[in-house]
Write a structure and sequence with these properties.
Chain lengths: 606, 391
């Protein structure tokens, strides 16, 4: 058992690229968790995608032994947290298991929007926050300016901020010392009934489901019968341990400690994050307050390019889901794309990551349909059915407009940080996307913008546009603020007079014409010329709002063909026919598969 | 299963064509992807002997048939010694016998050196030449890498018309710098020479040629499909008005002056091909000889023939070939005959729904068992084939 006063549980809050993972690595190295030889860059980012993109997706934890300047030995539990807004829910779990946080801010770039969101969460948890100004050895570093920002924007005293460079190893000892002296030890009662928080869980092919826990009261040990209070299930603990970062088995975990257990559980679906773990024989009287349930907010269809890969896609998605309970999927079929899945994600980055993992780890060629949000439809009563409210995940499922009383769409509140010089175009972008300005303040040459925006205006390419307008300087964070009624319509795209379901979308009436025109223009370039001319139309109901025409092919003939060319020409023809198989037939028009997603990219808005 | 005996050699008509490939050229033209090679010296006696042996191999496999056409192609067959041509023609007659109206064509370069051999070639039995004139514009000839100029070329044409009853020539048009007015003038001049046959090709960039390399570097900009369509339509109108309509995509003739040899290919008849890289079709088999001259020679010494491959063609492949060759012809194809040849139904070899669609668009025409591409559709032939041909 570890003396509570010798435990410190902390997380690191940082914007992407501000050096969180590098700092975590340094702390592990400095406290001897791994030898130099074992340190591969960024130990905690396990997945290839995490390493490549430099982001953290899943929360990780590591237990460090540290002998402080007071001569005492401490156990420091580092909870690594994801930096991206899509994974904010992971952050909140990690924070709930800590008493304090390191706030890492880049000495050259200053405070960013996402950092802010996580800091506020941390403050809400009554955490002690230790500011760390990182990358102070960069030529562009302005630690004094950043200190002022931390005080002005966040309202935290920053005069005692640690100046560090994780990359060069500067300030690491000071950080460790600050953790011990500034972050309070956890509280807890060893003799009280067991009460532990289920922080996270994942599937490990050798250990089965591994459960990350934070013990509040009591003790958990191998052989104990435990109960998940929310789920109501009972399990036998068969392993207790901690990550250093290598797995180390421990006899027990006591109050204030962070570690893992395994209990012969095969599916992570059985382990609800935020659940309270207690002892079967001596249960806790009251469960901990759980986490907010995670809801997917962005939906899209995923279809295999080769219809024969459908089963492989099903298996791959099921496997991914084993370790990521935050995304959902259900089978879907489309006239254009065949069988696939409609999947729900926490945000666009989450969507991209899942798509990329399916492509890379499972070797699947996928078509992704337009991302869509969840609409709430109020339907009038009919002769046979009463009035009701439904949720719409797929524009193709839109009921007859005559039945629709009203449509609500999800809105978000967005916080954007941007240098002054890019403010104008950013305001225009928000305005064009139906944004409502709530606040605009200036701090040290930067503007902090608060906007309410419809989520469906953000899911397409808002973030890309924001980055490109501000040359990467704008930062963006959002949270959902509920549904609001909107003048929303379903826009159909007709190719050669036939509606193409995979291209239909729900848009605000005021945006329909511009988006329709853009789609028609893109499709004109994406669909090859045929033997006949092809009209492409965007329509709301029966009303055409935009139109383009693909001219008929003028010439396509091999000039020379003699005796020896029969073989070659036959092989060319076979290849041509093979190519046609990779297109989707719509009536008599062949649409290349890449056209479906390419048509939805808005590109540069002029 | 190398030998597959079928009733009449497996083709769609009784013609039997012999193709003889002479692979050597003085230099390689930048647009040409034919099997041509530049060699400092050619052992003429060795080559004559080798071609004779290769011919004997094919003759043994195609007995009891008379040849209806012989074609010397290349490379530059006008560089062959006339004595070699004579020896090959004598051997062909000995092996097969020649139809009384046999067509014997030789491709010729329109240079003065080669024109000087025309009398000897005619004496050897050649009765038709196809001249690689390519252009009536000196600048264009230089662009195309040709050694002759317009004057020399027309001199050769004049000599050819004196020695051979049937003369054809090739022109390449829709060149990057050419406008329609220039082509109109050039074609009008070409039509005034009074030959009964012309092959008019639009410039195409073939893989592996120097033009392809230039194109890849962005240093050559061929006409786009829309511009090229204008040139093609102009060509059809002018040749039609002059009495030399297209009987095939790029070939024009006065009625009766069509190349019978090439018609055998397009009608999917039987043809034997000898010499490096030559292809043949006999008895449901596709034959191909070694392309590289040295490899062909050594194969010949080793095996008594220059064959690199002799493979049976699946019925669907045969149907595909018959259709893609035959639909190049204005006369089109006989679907019943093709279906019968490969033992399938018409619906198995063509997509009838697509055919109906294309017929309504007036791109193809169906008349009983015949299917033909309309003059309007000919310029879209490849796209049409992709629609109608079943494979």
């Amino acid at each position: 058992m570890t003396d509570l006063s010798k435990i410190r549980n902390f997380s690191i809050i940082a914007h992407i690229d501000h050096g969180k993972s590098t700092l975590a690595d340094r702390l592990i190295q400095r406290t001897g968790g791994l030898t130099d030889r074992e340190m591969s860059a960024q130990v905690l980012d396990n997945m290839d995608i995490e390493k490549e993109r430099g982001i953290t997706i899943k929360a990780q934890t590591v237990r460090l032994d540290y002998t402080a300047r007071d001569g005492q030995s401490y156990i420091l539990n580092l909870m690594d947290t994801p930096g991206h807004v899509d994974f904010a829910y992971e952050v909140s779990r990690s924070l709930a298991a800590c008493e304090g946080a390191l706030l890492v801010v880049d000495a050259a770039q200053g405070v960013e929007a996402q950092t802010l969101a996580n800091v506020y969460q941390s403050i809400e948890h009554d955490h002690e926050i230790v500011p760390v100004i990182n990358k102070i050895d960069l030529p562009a570093a302005e630690p004094e300016k950043v200190k002022a920002e931390i005080e002005d924007i966040i309202g935290l005293p920053a005069d005692e901020a640690v100046l560090a460079s994780a990359k060069s190893g500067i300030g690491i000892d000071e950080i460790l010392e600050a953790i011990v002296t500034k972050i309070p030890p956890p509280k807890g009662d060893r003799d009280a009934p067991l009460k532990a928080m289920l922080v996270d869980s994942w599937y490990d092919p050798y250990l089965g489901v591994v459960i990350l826990i934070r013990v509040i009261d009591g003790v958990i040990k191998k052989g104990q019968n435990i109960k998940f209070m929310q789920a109501g299930t009972q399990h036998l603990v068969d392993r207790v341990g901690a990550f250093r970062p290598k797995i180390e088995n421990l006899p027990e975990l006591g109050p204030g400690e962070v570690g893992f257990i395994t209990a012969q559980i095969k599916e992570i679906a059985q382990t609800r994050v935020g659940d309270t773990i207690t002892d079967v024989k001596k249960p806790a009287a009251q469960a901990l307050e759980g986490f907010k349930e995670v809801q997917p907010v962005v939906f899209c269809g995923l279809f295999p390019v080769d219809a024969n890969d459908f089963e492989k896609l099903r298996e791959s998605i099921s496997k991914l889901r084993l370790n990521d309970a935050s995304f959902s999927f259900e089978m879907e079929s489309s006239a254009a794309l065949g069988f696939g899945f409609r999947c729900g994600f926490l945000g666009l980055l989450h969507l991209e990551i899942i798509q990329e993992r399916l492509t890379r780890e499972y070797d699947l060629d996928l078509i992704t349909t337009a991302p869509s949000v969840v609409y709430r439809l109020h339907l009038r009563h009919t002769k046979d059915e009463a009035a009701k409210t439904i949720e719409l995940h797929n524009p193709a499922d839109m009921p007859d407009p005559n039945r629709i009383e009203s449509i609500e769409e999800p809105w978000i509140e967005a916080t954007i940080y941007v240098p002054d010089e890019y403010l104008g175009p950013i305001l225009k972008l928000c305005q064009d996307r139906r944004g409502i300005q709530k606040n605009l303040t200036y701090v040290a040459g930067r503007a902090q913008l608060t906007y309410e925006l419809p989520l469906n205006e953000v899911v397409f390419d808002f973030y890309d546009r924001l980055k490109s307008i501000s040359r990467g300087y704008a930062s963006f964070d959002y949270h959902q603020i509920g549904h609001r009624e909107g003048d929303l319509v379903k826009m159909n795209i007709l190719v050669n007079a036939e509606p193409v379901d995979a291209l239909s979308m729900i848009v605000h009436r005021s945006q329909a014409e511009a988006r329709g025109r853009h789609m028609c223009e893109r499709l004109k370039d994406l669909i090859p010329r045929h033997l006949f001319k092809i009209p492409i139309q965007a329509a709301i109901g029966g009303k055409v709002i935009a139109r383009e025409t693909i001219a008929a092919l003028r010439k396509d003939v091999t000039a020379k063909c003699y005796g020896g060319d029969a073989t070659r020409k036959r092989k060319l023809l076979e290849k041509q026919k093979e190519g046609k198989k990779r297109m989707r037939e719509y009536g008599s028009v062949s649409i290349p598969q890449e056209a479906f997603i390419a048509a939805l990219r808005m590109g540069d808005e002029s | 299963m190398l030998k597959q005996v079928q009733h009449d050699g497996g083709g769609l008509e009784d013609a039997l064509a012999l193709y003889i490939h002479w692979p050597f050229c003085v230099s390689k033209c930048p647009y040409c992807d034919f099997n041509s090679h530049v060699r400092e010296a050619v052992d003429q006696a060795q080559w004559r002997e080798a071609l004779l042996v290769d011919m004997a191999h094919e003759a043994a496999l195609l007995p009891e048939r008379r040849l209806t056409s012989i074609f010397f192609g290349g490379g530059t067959p006008s560089l062959m010694p006339p004595a070699t041509v004579a020896a090959l023609l004598e051997a062909a007659e000995r092996h097969w016998g020649l139809a009384p109206d046999i067509e014997i064509t030789l491709e010729a370069n329109p240079s003065s050196v080669e024109a000087a051999r025309f009398a000897d070639l005619a004496a050897a039995g050649v009765n038709r030449v196809s001249l690689g004139l390519q252009s009536l514009d000196n600048q264009a000839l230089r662009f195309l890498g040709r050694a002759h100029d317009v004057e020399e070329g027309l001199g050769a044409l004049d000599t050819a018309q004196k020695h051979f009853s049937r003369v054809s020539f090739d022109l390449i048009y829709a060149l990057p710098e050419q406008d329609e007015a220039a082509w109109e003038a050039e074609l009008a001049r070409a039509l005034s020479f009074g030959t009964g046959h012309m092959s008019l090709y639009q410039l195409t960039i073939e893989p592996g040629t120097r033009f392809a390399a230039l194109f890849a570097k962005g240093e050559l900009a061929p006409k786009d499909a829309d511009e090229a369509a204008g040139f093609y339509e102009l060509t059809q109108a002018m040749t039609g008005a002059a009495g030399l309509p297209a009987y095939e995509t790029s070939n024009h003739a006065r009625p009766g002056e069509e190349s019978r040899h090439n018609l055998t290919y397009w009608r999917y008849g039987t043809y034997a091909g000898i010499g490096p890289g030559a292809h043949g079709r006999r008895g449901g088999l596709a034959t191909q000889r070694h392309r590289k001259p040295e490899n062909w020679l050594s194969a010949l010494a080793r095996n008594g023939h220059g064959l690199q491959e002799e493979a049976p063609l699946a019925p669907t492949d045969q149907a595909m070939e018959a259709l893609l060759m035959g639909l190049r012809l204005r006369e089109g194809v006989d679907l019943d005959r093709i279906a019968a040849l490969v033992g399938k139904g018409v619906a198995d070899i063509v997509d009838l729904a697509a055919a109906g669609r294309l017929e309504r668009a007036e791109l193809i025409r169906r008349d009983g068992e015949r299917l033909a591409v309309t003059p309007r559709g000919m310029i879209l032939l490849d796209a049409i084939l992709a629609e109608v041909v079943r494979a």
